Amino acid sequence: MTPNINAFFDNVTCTVSYIVYDETSGFCAIIDPVLDYNSRSSQISTTSADQLITFIERKRLSVEWILETHAHADHLSAAHYIKKQLGGKIAIGDRIPTVQTTFKKMFNLGNDFVPDGLQFDYLFADEEIFQVGKLTAKALAVPGHTPADMAYQFNDVIFVGDTLFMPDVGTARADFPGGNAQMLYRSIHKILAYPPQTRLFMCHDYPPNGRDPVWETTVAQQLAENIHVNRNIDEAAFIAMRNKRDASLEAPLLLLPSIQTNIRAGELPPPETNGISYFKIPIR
Which of 30, 131, 193, 252 could anchor a disulfide with 74, C-beta 3.0 to 4.6 Å? Predict the structure, then answer.
């Protein structure tokens, strides 16, 4: 069964969130929802997430899953907020404890934070099959950008997370803790081994040369045109390119608040004795 797909582009973080639904049964999945965060004022708002909620309520859909492709470093997840509003199970890949362990040490989170993945409602194994109403989906482990990245396949559609960008943008970085350029190359080619007509939906678009944001491509187009991983670029060349490029990149603007939220399935750090939540900023 072919899924219905609605995309929502966040101009601030260049993130694409998706609602995937089966109109017959009325069930849907949300993929990578965004919680708005003003880094200057440290204020949270829910404008982006509320757009998803409005669509779901207008279509009279029931949320079955809130799917994270990974613990994002560039935006805060709205998964916790949406679950409180609409229900649904928050899910991510079963390697998330590896990421949580790394960042527990980095932020010195203490005994209150247990890196076991249980902050999420469900952890998907590689190749695990699940349902969204009458839609059959498959979780695909695609590590490399982080150790715990997942893609989600619905029939001839794959939501690729941060493994791939549009062909004129290339691929995601692999220098976060636990990232690995060789692993990323192999994960990308796991996706590109699907039939040429398979539709691929990106988690981000960073439009070069002033073009409008776009987020859908195909396996065939990626193999022919991707500036980092087309069929003429071998593994060694990709690793050399990715490592050199990553060495020149700055950390994402929202890295520190994003990670501290997203390893908690979108829940902010617990309030302190004055009732206020705080993000930690390591000084190096």
Answer: 252
Assigned domain for 283 exists: no
Query: What is the distance between the alpha carbons of residues 191 and 161, in angstroms, rounded to a whole number?
Result: 11
Range of the domain at 157: 4-262
From its phi and psi, is residue 234 left (phi > 0), alpha (psi between -120 and 50) or beta? Answer: beta
Say whether 270 sits in a helix, a strand or coil: coil
Q: Which residues are within 8 A (CB) of 280 and not within 5 positions of it... i.e. 6 or more apart?
A: 107, 108, 256, 260, 269
C-alpha–C-alpha distance, residues 139 and 67, integer Å: 10
pLDDT tens digits, 152-168: 999 999 999 999 999 99
Task: Using only the alpha carbons of the chain, give its radius of gyration.
Answer: 18
Please indicate, yes or no, if residue 275 is contained in any of the structural domains: no
pLDDT in tens, 207-226: 998 899 999 999 999 999 99
pTM: 0.96
Secondary structure (DSSP) of 12-81: TTTEEEEEEEETTTTEEEEES-EEEEETTTTEEE-HHHHHHHHHHHHHT-EEEEEE-SS--SSSEE-HHH
User: Is residue 270 in some structural domain?
Assistant: no
Q: How many domains does the chain have?
A: 1
> pLDDT of 96-150, one tens digit each?
999 999 999 999 998 999 999 999 999 999 999 999 999 999 999 999 999 999 9
What percent of the chain has pLDDT above 70?
100
Helix (H, G, I), strand (E, B) or coil at 9: strand
- 187 part of a folded domain: yes
How far is Cα 152 from Cα 161, in angstroms, rounded to an integer? 8
Contact 70, 146 (CB under 8 A): yes
